[in-house]
Amino acid sequence: MACAAAMLAIVSCNNTAKQSATEAEPEQGMEIFFADPTIYTENGKYYLTGTRNAEPLGFAMLESTDLKNWTLSRPDSIILGKGRGAYGDKGFWAPQIFKDGDKYLYLYTANEQVALAKGDSVNALYTQEVIEPIDASEKNIDPFLFRDSDGKYYLYHVRFDNGNFLWVGEFNPETGKIVEGTLKPCFRNDQAWEATDAYPSAPIMEGPTVLKIDDLYYLFYSANHFMSDDYAVGYATASSPVGPWTKNPANPIIHRNIVGEKGSGHGDVFTDNDGNMRYVYHVHHNDSVVSPRRTRIISLNVDKSKGQPYAITADTTTIIKPIRK
């Protein structure tokens, strides 16, 4: 998450926003500074978008064929922007691209509310017929839409309750709303890595991604404040998309002690052109400065030798530092 968690911590959101002012499209030859990144694959090409916190406000997109070298996917790079037919005028964070039939859905956070826009292609200008959030009844951020094999849709996201916590509800993509009566919390902080002393804050769990592997559901998430050195990624498993969830005892799987860079988290799982599972995430700018956060890509190894739940680990020999060409 880009900034909302900061309101729960010692440092104010305004100070964080100032730190993040340069998270924009990088110049040629520079590393990419997308936080909360996601990668969508289609026809042998990769599409990267994420939190950028820069003018013009909204989301940009880059594309690549090799995950290392990236170019603008549109002439102005912007695929959803403030005042361009979509909800929100600040705090554009944590997007996801989801193809539903012949439409492309773009889920994102703005004004600390989850919103849904649509486009006719992956790098379209995404807009809304009715400019509104999905659920205006309370604050909610960090969306991830999952479609199960039975055709049901589930919206994973974060809600505030003296902290940031993961929730799930059935979702109707036609109405763009959560199905009434289906909202359910996923779990609370109960592993030591999820709340360290590196950056004191209220409990924070965010950045969900869900996938199904051989009839078991894997929920990847980040914990700790994003400004913490110990911001990291773990996962939990369940036999149902709504839980109950059992956390991986070997969490976290991505952490500064594993990947060698601080603040490593909040990304998305995708499959590359060779069938390898990968995770795209962000890290702190350097050991002393949080922003602009840098984008990273790493392979995930899935060990099926001992049966379900499978042991998923990050392969640190595969880390990619993507570059804008």
Topology:
Elements: H1 13-19, E1 35-42, E2 45-51, E3 58-64, E4 69-72, E5 78-81, E6 93-100, E7 103-110, E8 113-119, E9 140-147, E10 153-160, E11 164-172, E12 177-178, E13 184-185, E14 205-213, E15 216-223, E16 232-238, E17 246-247, H2 256-259, E18 265-271, E19 277-283, E20 294-303, E21 311-320, E22 323-324
Parallel strand pairs: 4-22
Antiparallel strand pairs: 1-2, 2-3, 3-4, 3-5, 6-7, 7-8, 9-10, 10-11, 11-12, 11-13, 14-15, 15-16, 16-17, 18-19, 19-20, 20-21
Task: Describe what is shown at a glance.
The chain is mainly beta.
Question: How would you explain this protein's 3D organization?
Answer:
- The protein has about 325 residues and is mostly beta strands.
- The protein is about 5% helix and about 45% strand.
- It has 2 helices and 22 strands.
- The chain has helices spanning about 15-20, 255-260; strands spanning about 35-40, 45-50, 60-65, 70, 80, 95-100, 105-110, 115-120, 140-145, 155-160, 165-170, 175-180, 185, 205-215, 215-225, 230-240, 245, 265-270, 275-285, 295-305, 310-320, 325.
- Strands 1, 2, 3, 4, 5 and 22 form a 6-stranded mixed sheet that branches. Strands 9, 10, 11, 12 and 13 form a 5-stranded antiparallel sheet that branches.
- A hairpin with a 7-residue loop joins strand 16 and strand 17 (about 245).
- The two termini are about 25 Å apart.
- Residues about 1-20 have low confidence and may be disordered.
